[in-house]
Amino acid sequence: MADHLAALVADYGRPEDVIRLASLPRPALEPDMVEIAVERAAINPSNLIPVTGAYRNRTVLPFVPGFEGVGTVSRIGADVTNFKPGDRVLPLGAGGLWQAYLQRPAEWCFAVPADLSTEQAATAYINPMTTLRLIAALKVSSGLAGRRIGVTAAGSAVGRMLLMTLSAEGAYVTAIVRSESTAARLPALPGLQTVVTGQQPIGRDTVFDAVVDAVGGDTGGALLRYNLSAGGVFLQYGALSGIPIAQDALSARPDVRFAFLWLRSFVHSTGRQALSGAFAAML
Ligand SMILES: NC(=O)c1ccc[n+]([C@@H]2O[C@H](COP(=O)([O-])OP(=O)(O)OC[C@H]3O[C@@H](n4cnc5c(N)ncnc54)[C@H](OP(=O)(O)O)[C@@H]3O)[C@@H](O)[C@H]2O)c1
């Protein structure tokens, strides 16, 4: 079988410096595997951050990045009965989407509904499912209606989905962004408040019952310290600043329920049936 092209990372560093195009072999298929001809794969922070070496304890060099994408089954292993060549699938549970052909166990592949375009399917997994997991985590303590909720990096794909979902659930939502130009691109939602942080922390008179944070660093730390109600919730799911929340900010608020949310943990701990259910709820 002819070699195929892949984006390969052999050293950690800035993605634009270290991602190279390489020719890789197409190995023989194990009986439980399918081979997928990748058609579209997403580029977003979740894919780029591992390239920098941020998760080097669970990333073995060299590797092909890309946690999300869609393709067509090109070959099936001898034991595979649930897919046939030509089926469109979303392969979940590991990286490697940034290559022409990808092998994945059939049990980690999900059929793409016919009414979903290839472009839609390529981004239908990580960010939408992360949003739904964050919403579910916020609902653990109480419903969302009437709660004051701050969303950082609100102009991101996840941020915008959070704003729309929280707003639809009746929460009082505040979009927290770092520039006026990002504020101008936010969805027009009834009652949506917007705060542009710039160089300044948010005034201490602004109080949230919950903060959903993807920035960390000083922005996340100040929100945790000064802008959460007594017994509030701080949910972190990213660190776009590249800096974790300082320990003294965490220590200053022992009353707050602080939690990390990693989609990866959910995907790897839940069964195929629950994942299918989560897809059905999204699509
Ligand atoms: N925990 C999980 O399982 C999980 C899953 C999916 C995504 N994530 C995380 O979710 C976050 C958003 O991902 P995405 O794909 O939605 O991003 P995206 O659509 O590519 O948008 C990135 C956004 O981040 C903002 N941003 C970047 N650096 C920032 C900083 N230092 N301070 C404030 N804002 C900053 C940008 O703001 P400007 O518009 O101002 O440039 C932009 O709006 C990332 O941290 C990603 O790793 C986590």
Walk me through this protein's architecture.
The structure is a single chain. With 283 residues, this protein is an alpha/beta fold. It folds into 2 domains: 121 residues, Quinone Oxidoreductase, Chain A, domain 1 (Alpha-Beta Complex); 137 residues, 3-Layer(aba) Sandwich (Rossmann fold). It is built from 10 helices and 13 strands. Helix 7 links the parallel strand 11 and strand 12. The protein is globular. The mean pLDDT is 94.
What would you say the CATH architecture of the largest domain is?
3-Layer(aba) Sandwich
Bound molecules: NADP nicotinamide-adenine-dinucleotide phosphate
CATH topology of the largest domain: Rossmann fold
Helix/strand order: EHEEHEEEEHHEHEHEEHEHEHH
Report the portion of residues in β strands.
25-35%
Fraction of residues in H or I helices: 25-40%
Query: What radius of gyration results from the CA coordinates?
Result: 21 Å
Mean pLDDT, to the nearest integer, reads 94
Q: Which word captures the global form?
A: globular
Supply database-style keywords:
6-stranded parallel β-sheet, binds NADP nicotinamide-adenine-dinucleotide phosphate, single chain, 283 residues, 27% helix, Quinone Oxidoreductase, Chain A, domain 1, 5-stranded antiparallel β-sheet, 10 helices
